[in-house]
Amino acid sequence: MVATWNIEKGIVDRYGYLHREPHGSVLRLPAPEIDDDDWLVWLARDEWLKMLYRTSASRLSSERRFS
Questions:
Q1: Measuring CA to CA, how many Å separate 64 from each of 4, 30, 53, 57, 59?
Q2: Do the beta carbons of residue 1 and residue 12 sit within 8 Å?
Q3: Which DSSP string do the residues of 18-59 spell out, in sequence order?
Q4: Cα–Cα dist 54/6, whole Å
Q5: DSSP bridge pairs for 29
Q6: pTM
Q7: Per-residue pLDDT at 61 exceeds 80
Q8: What are the angstrom distances between the C-alpha of 44 and each of 17, 19, 20, 29?
């Protein structure tokens, strides 16, 4: 769950989330003036595994360069 500003500023894109749906979590409490409407963001299992593999491979490559 992320706030709308994370979508608008491209933060979700930078973290690699490929799927997003508005109104993933809506909380409205008038008395304390809370109006929260978050986005649901996710990766499918195979997308997450590919990202994990790329990150691990990149990290190993960096460690080898500095060893």
A1: 39, 56, 17, 11, 9
A2: no
A3: -EEEEEEEEEEETTTTEEEEEEEEE--HHHHHHHHHHHHHHH
A4: 23
A5: 34
A6: 0.68
A7: no
A8: 9, 8, 11, 33
pLDDT higher than threshold 80 for residue 59 = no
Q: Say yes or no to pLDDT of 21 above 80.
A: yes
Residue 7: Cβ within 10 Å count: 17
Which of helix, strand or coil describes residue 66?
coil
**Do 47 and 17 touch, CB atoms closer than 8 A?**
no
Retrieve residue 12's tokens: 């979700």
Q: Identify any residues that bridge with 54 across adjacent strands, giving them in sequence order.
A: none
d(CA 27, CA 33): 10
Judged on CB neighbours under 10 Å (0-12, 13-18, 19+), 12 is middle
